Amino acid sequence: AESTQTPVISESVSTTDGTAIEVAANLGTPAEAEPAVDRGADGVGLFRTEFCFLDRQSPPDEAEQFAAYHSVCETFAEGVDSEATASKPDSEDEPRIVVRTADIGGDKPIDYLDIDAEQNGFLGARGVRLSLEEHADLFETQLRALLRVAATDAGAGLAVMFPLVSTVEELEAALDRVEEIADDLDSEGVDYAIPELGVMIETPASTYLADTFAERVDFLSIGTNDLTQYVQAAQRDLDRMNDYQDPLAPGVIRAIDRTVTAGHAGGAWVGMCGEMAGDPDLTELLVGLGLDELSMSAVTIPDVKTAIQDVDVESAEQLAASVLDAETRADVYDRL
Ligand code: PEP
Ligand code: MG
């Protein structure tokens, strides 16, 4: 109820001492782009493209995907005034639109792809694993569409990230695919550009590899929904596991801290696009942990932008240090 009353802030926001934090929207469909602009989104931090593959008989072709991704870029290019993008890490002219390649499997099965149910659990073939193996064809079509959008005027801020990466081999294979697709488009004489590239940090292994990943890509984006599930070994859709499925558990907070520090050391900017990023009560902690960008469902954007404007970075860092010392969840909540 509170969020509907908080005034929309359409320009970019900074902390009291001038640290700009990008506040972006999570989208499931292109139709959600305009409402997100209206709520003051600086850009898109997570476009969950798998929803373009759901509720139909066959996957969308390259033209359909091009149209979908381009329309999101256009809506933001038209709707967000250039001041609003000033906070974007490594700012360019157009708002940044982070598109995640299809994250299929786990809690997002797709009937027509006929994915083996046994391989498709949370610990099975899902996310980038499917894109590199069984569904290399879908990955290729999606990358072609994305590289073509990146070459358009509205697509200048396009960024692409890969879900559920847990090894350097997977990341390198995905980056190789991007290069191969670029070569194909080049030899076909089709306009393309290589967008900014990033990795989602959603598995314990990826938190330990964050510096290595960061040397290979432009950015990391922490998916706290899956990261919490895997760090806590507690399935995200089981009610009985609710107490474990808490990103404020000390093990998860320390995994986030490790990721931000390692990502920055490797030269990447680090964002967060899990549900945690949209909780205005946690904004000070997240700024204190050093996140450069927070991406969330559009409805919470005004509250989080308002919260950022009240944050003093030095106190936020003290809060983060104190929370990182906590040994139990109760202790975390006390310190918050
Ligand atoms: C996450 O895991 O935190 C995330 C943002 O991705 P999804 O919720 O779509 O799995
Ligand atoms: Mg996820």
From TrEMBL:
Specify the species.
Answer: Halohasta litchfieldiae
What cofactor does its activity depend on?
A: Mg(2+)
Q: Which residues bind Mg(2+)?
A: 202, 226
Q: Which GO terms describe its molecular function?
A: kinase activity; metal ion binding; phosphoenolpyruvate-protein phosphotransferase activity
Q: Which residues form the PEP-utilising enzyme C-terminal domain?
A: 13-312
Q: What is its EC number?
A: 2.7.3.9
One biological process term in Gene Ontology: phosphoenolpyruvate-dependent sugar phosphotransferase system
Q: Which residues form the active site?
A: 273 (proton donor)
- For this UniProt record, give its keywords in alphabetical order, as a comma-separated list: Cytoplasm, Kinase, Magnesium, Metal-binding, Phosphotransferase system, Sugar transport, Transferase, Transport
Q: Which GO terms describe its cellular component?
A: cytoplasm
Q: Which reaction does it catalyse?
A: L-histidyl-[protein] + phosphoenolpyruvate = N(pros)-phospho-L-histidyl-[protein] + pyruvate
Instruction: Name the domain of life.
Output: Archaea
Role, per record: General (non sugar-specific) component of the phosphoenolpyruvate-dependent sugar phosphotransferase system (sugar PTS). This major carbohydrate active-transport system catalyzes the phosphorylation of incoming sugar substrates concomitantly with their translocation across the cell membrane. Enzyme I transfers the phosphoryl group from phosphoenolpyruvate (PEP) to the phosphoryl carrier protein (HPr).
Q: What is its main location?
A: cytoplasm
Stretch of the intact protein here: 244 to 579 of 579
Which cell locations does it reside in? Cytoplasm
UniProt family annotation = Belongs to the PEP-utilizing enzyme family.
Q: Enzyme class, one word?
A: transferase
**Protein name in the entry:** Phosphoenolpyruvate-protein phosphotransferase
Listed binding positions for phosphoenolpyruvate are: 48, 100, 225-226, 236
